[in-house]
Structures are given as C-alpha cells and as structure tokens.
C-alpha cells in the first residue's frame, strides 16, 4: 500500500479538526473547550494547549474564553479526514459485512493509516457513495458536502412526519438498540405524542399496515435526524 502523504496533518491534528467540525455541524451552539474535552476524553488544559498549536497552524480561530471555529484551511483538513473515515465505514459495512455499530472505532484507526490513493479506490469500488451507513454525508474529492434539510427527532412536534436520514454514530450500544428495534435509515417516522417534561416520544415507525407505534426515549430521539416529508 502506498504510504500516506507527508503533507498530511498529524494524527492528533486530524482528530481535533474532525471533532471541531462535527461539533459545529451537529451542535446547537458555539464549540467550547469543555465540549471538545468531553468528546476527546482529555482535560480542558490539553484542549487549550492543542488549540494554541492549531491556531499557529492557521487551522482554528479561537480567542481565550471564546468559542472555537475552524478556518477555511481547517475546514478543508477536517473534510479530508471525514471523507476517509466515512468511506472506510461504508466499505467495512458493504464489502466486509460489519454492522453499523462496529465500524466507527475501526475507521478511527484506519483513517490515519490509509493513503489517499487507497481511499479513492474504495470510493470508485463503491460507486462514489454520498452518505455512509449512518447517513452522514461523505465529502466529495474537492471538499464539498451535500447537505439536506434535517432536524432532530427529539425536536419534532406531535404530528410531524419524516424519514430517518441520519443517526449519530458515537454510541455503539445505542446503535445496537436501534437495530434491535428495527429502526434505521430510510424509515418513515411520525411523532404521535410527546410525553411531558422531557420524557419519551410515542412514534409510529413504518408506513401503511406495517406501521408500528413505539415508545422512544429521549436519548434515542436525540440521535435520530429526520428529513420532513
């Protein structure tokens, strides 16, 4: 296998810019040091030190006690590693028979080791997919992301109807639970009722005579993204 290009950022730099991008994309507010520390399982001081390095490299814009944002260069670096990660996840599922709860950690290891040539061979073999097994968009070769209008199921009001198009992949146990409940990408979902005080949602999964009502906890509902019908 061809070795990774020397100009590629270090593993730690790639991990940080990817997490910042993910928090910017999925989060409901500014990216903070504490949120990054929680995602990376490191201390706040470690994040602060790394942000200074990323700032020197021109990858982030961060002022002390302020929020963190990727620069244009940082966004480009994040999209490159996300492309590798999501294509690897797709290959592991489609070609090697992995389940969707197994691929995240595997791809985390592989994304820093494989060459760009190898990743593009995977993309060609898979027919240039636009989304990974969790519905996350796969950035194009030139760093574009095709997004669609989506919202969290947990934010949907009673009567809302949509299609599940994306699932947060950070918790393998939750992914296994959803698979056991036969809840996945492409399924129609209708919010029947919201329990008071931040409780569970009563949802109808599926369409027509095969639709089933389920009680879905808030943690699961916060992991599902739907596109409105």
Beta strand %: 15-25%
Tally of contiguous helical segments: 8
Q: Helix coverage percent of residues? A: 40-55%
Can you tell me the residue ranges where pLDDT is under 50 for at least 5 consecutive residues?
1-6
What is the top-level CATH class of the largest domain?
Mainly Alpha
- Number of discrete domains: 2
| Alpha-carbon distance between the two ends | 45 Å
Indicate the CATH architecture of the largest domain. Answer: Orthogonal Bundle
Overall form: globular
Structural category is: alpha+beta
Quick one: CATH superfamily of the largest domain? Winged helix-like DNA-binding domain superfamily/Winged helix DNA-binding domain
CATH fold-level assignment of the largest domain? Arc Repressor Mutant, subunit A
Number of strands: 8
Order of helices and strands: HHHEEHHHEEHEEEHE
Largest sheet: 6 strands, antiparallel
| Overall average residue pLDDT | 91
* Rg (CA only): 19 Å
- What spatial order of strands do you see in the largest sheet? 3-8-4-5-6-7
Protein name: Manganese transport regulator
Organism: Nocardiopsis endophytica
Pfam families: Fe_dep_repr_C (PF02742), Fe_dep_repress (PF01325), FeoA (PF04023)
InterPro entries: DtxR_MntR_Metal-Reg, Fe-transptr_FeoA-like, Fe_dep_repressor, Fe_dep_repressor_sf, FeoA_core_dom, HTH_DTXR, Iron_dep_repressor, Transcriptional_repressor_C
């Amino acid at each position: 296998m061809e070795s990774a290009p020397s100009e590629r950022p270090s593993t730690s730099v790639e991990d940080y810019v990817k997490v910042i991008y993910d928090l910017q994309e999925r989060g409901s507010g500014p990216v903070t040091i504490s949120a990054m520390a929680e995602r990376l399982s490191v201390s706040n001081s470690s994040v602060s030190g790394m942000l200074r390095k990323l700032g020197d490299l021109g990858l982030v814009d961060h002022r002390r006690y302020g929020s963190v944002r990727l620069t244009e260069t940082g966004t480009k670096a994040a999209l490159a590693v996300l492309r590798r990660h999501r294509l690897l996840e797709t290959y592991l599922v489609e070609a090697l028979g992995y389940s969707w709860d197994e691929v995240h950690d595997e791809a985390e290891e592989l994304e820093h080791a494989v060459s760009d040539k190898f990743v593009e061979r995977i993309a060609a073999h898979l027919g240039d997919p636009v989304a990974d097994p969790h519905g996350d968009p796969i950035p194009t070769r030139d760093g574009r992301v095709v997004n669609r209008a989506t919202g969290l199921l947990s934010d949907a009001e009673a009567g809302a109807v949509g299609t599940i198009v994306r699932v947060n992949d950070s918790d393998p146990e939750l992914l296994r639970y959803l698979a056991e409940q036969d809840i996945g990408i492409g399924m129609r979902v209708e919010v029947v009722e919201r329990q008071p005080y931040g409780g569970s949602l009563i949802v109808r999964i599926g369409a027509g005579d095969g639709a089933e009502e389920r009680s879905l906890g808030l943690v699961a509902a916060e992991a599902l993204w739907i596109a409105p019908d």
